[in-house]
Amino acid sequence: MKPSPLARDRHALYEAAVQGVDYDLGYAERLFRHLRGRAPRTLRDDFCATAALATGFALRHPDNESWAVDRDAAPLAWARRHRLSHLNDAADRVHLVRGDVRTARVPRVDLTLAYNFSYWVMRTRQELVAYFRSARRGLGRDGLFLVTAFGGSDAMRTLVEKRRVAGKHGPDGLPIPAFTYVWEQESFNPVDHAFRCAIHFEFGRGRKPLRNAFRYDWRFWTLPEIREAMGEAGFRESRVYVELWDDETRPDPPSARRRSFAQQETWLALVAGIA
Q1: Looking at residue 246, what is its pLDDT?
Q2: Residue 249 pLDDT
Q3: Which end of the chain has fewer CB within 10 Å, C or N?
Q4: How do strand 139-151 and strand 267-274 relate by DSSP bridges?
Q5: Is the pTM higher than 0.85?
Q6: Residue 220: what pLDDT?
Q7: Is CATH 3.40.50.1820 correct for 10-150+220-274?
Q8: Beta pairing partners, 257
Q9: Residues 6 or more apart from 201 whose CB is under 8 A from it?
Q10: What pLDDT sits at residue 245?
């Protein structure tokens, strides 16, 4: 049997292992409705890669429109080939924009997302504030800017974590056979918070692994630093919503907001910049 063309496709494997588009968009929409009393209808997906969030948003409602911004042409081409070509009419409401998220020309939107810690490519406070300021300018009057962060006692040390991922299908319907997702934290420098990580994929049965499918040279940004940068960038307020590993269910926004919480080995947070 001929192997699927997505069996070793790093973008398809990443989406299958890392992204939970329906959950992420559902949570963002509930938070927006909680804070603004209405549903968002326009979205900007910064550092979009294969534009999964932007596409998912357009598919959630016929009035939704999205812009997906990334400076790398390769994942945008992947999105055009494997995703937009299968959207029918919804494709007209998804706009792929190649450019720097700080300077890309995009209409003002209700909701801007910078997920999967993508903005950690900003290595200095000056760069981070400049990006947050551009994100603030890109929002409508009652817009919302959401970024993800993580931390915990395991977050600043070297480690390797593996997780088996069941077989799935890509956005174009092609199969993605089961594989193992490997997250490696290679190094962390306490002096400047330089944080280097990598993603590998393993396939078993003597098949060659896909090493260093993605590499990240980040600065590890803490919650106080993120919130202070948002304030400096002109956001009226910022709020923190946390998902703890011992939560029995994923809480809705009102119950997930935290002003303090006990340290854990790992936690995930969403920081909302309120225009």
Answers
A1: 57
A2: 59
A3: N
A4: antiparallel
A5: yes
A6: 98
A7: no
A8: 241
A9: 8, 10, 13, 17, 179, 180, 181, 182, 209, 210, 213
A10: 55
DSSP code at position 176: E
Which regions of the chain are under pLDDT 50? none
C-alpha of 211 from chain center: 22
Long-range contacts of 24-28 (CB under 8 A, 24+ apart): 24/53, 24/113, 24/115, 25/53, 25/56, 25/57, 25/60, 27/250, 27/252, 27/253, 27/270, 28/111, 28/113, 28/146
Rounded to a whole number of angstroms, the CA Rg of the chain reads 18
Q: Which residue has the tokens 């549903």?
A: 39
Q: Which residues contact 205 (CB under 8 A, 6 or more apart)?
A: none
Question: Which residue type does 50 have?
Answer: T
Domain boundaries, the chain: 10-150+220-274, 159-219
Which residues sit opposite 196 in a β-bridge? 187, 217
Nearest CA-CA partner of 152 in 23, 262, 25, 36: 262
- 81: part of which helix (H) or strand (E)? helix 73-82
